[in-house]
């Protein structure tokens, strides 16, 4: 898409992301979830047609209707080519003419779940699929993330995610899973997978794994929008939902200050805190309070608590790192993972010093290809005056960097290390 005019590129990405879920929901509702791969291919082909047409003819006045009509014609053409549909060809056109007029059936008290994306997420998160398959399928089908972006979220390979998606679609076909929204009282049973999908969608927006920009605010806003719908629904407005929404709002409040005017990355201590959105911070703190009702404690509660420590600190030096470390201690017990251990190690370094941080990082396993590990090692080494060692770590991070802003960031840090005066020994 990079060769398209900026306005056309934005319109194409925006409308495909927001309209594809509705198209997939409509087609899958007509032909069954077992044909999900075919449905996705039809919608994808509609986007390809848009890319081929819009640069020359201009973006249509109603891009959503254009994509809908194109997908409809493509589906009809493909169905006519299938021999087993020949006997039903007479009824196809009449039936498909009602596609956009007939939404998925919803219970009367599910008004907030009339959002196509959110409803189809619950459909994808079927309990007969593995939890990882549910999340990967939701991210791919509804959020438009590529297998590479999903792989970055799971800290695994693109090939592994592609295989996971193939197996999920095969499982759907084998079991002939129904394409239907569960009853209202059954929604909480699928909520964990839906929340995990929204969490990863927000993360991809907060720190993109590919593309030209560090932040993809459209993904952050979409994740917040959908989580807010869940938080206001009588069957899904549970503590963990409020906790996730608090985490998103507190994190999104800092988005305006994460880069400078040139798009260069700013570390937390470099950010202009006057740019932080105080209304989002207050809203996040309110949802954090709501999440405290009952005895539920999830990773979202703990991460939101950490975000609150950052968001409410008057300046970087006033940050309550001791409390952050305490929360990470709880988090690593609740959801042990290499990434959580990495983040905890950074807090260790802030509380007990850079050397302790390096020692904690040395115990982290399985993240050799994870950029943030080498960035953290470089930062602690630089604090200790070990500039040559820091440069080695930063070069490793640079080799793993994908985004232009990341590459520029580590090139700057390497240059600082190369020109820094060696720290004199205190012995």
Features:
single chain, 427 residues, globular, mainly alpha, 19 helices, 65% helix
Structure report:
By secondary structure, the chain is mainly α. It contains 19 helices and no strands. Helix 7 (147-154) crosses helix 8 (158-175).
Order of helices and strands: HHHHHHHHHHHHHHHHHHH
Rounded to the nearest angstrom, the radius of gyration is 24 Å
| Helical stretch tally | 19
- The helix content, as a percent range, equals 55-70%
What structural class do helix, strand and pairing data support?
Answer: mainly alpha
Strand and helix layout:
Elements: H1 6-31, H2 36-57, H3 63-81, H4 89-96, H5 116-124, H6 131-141, H7 147-154, H8 158-175, H9 187-206, H10 217-231, H11 239-252, H12 278-291, H13 299-312, H14 321-334, H15 338-352, H16 354-362, H17 371-383, H18 387-400, H19 404-419
Helix pairs in contact: 1-2, 1-3, 2-3, 3-4, 6-8, 6-9, 7-8, 9-10, 9-11, 10-11, 11-12, 11-13, 12-13, 13-14, 14-15, 15-16, 16-17, 17-18, 18-19
In summary, what is this structure?
This protein has helices at 6-31, 36-57, 63-81, 89-96, 116-124, 131-141, 147-154, 158-175, 187-206, 217-231, 239-252, 278-291, 299-312, 321-334, 338-352, 354-362, 371-383, 387-400, 404-419. With 427 residues, the chain is mainly alpha-helical.
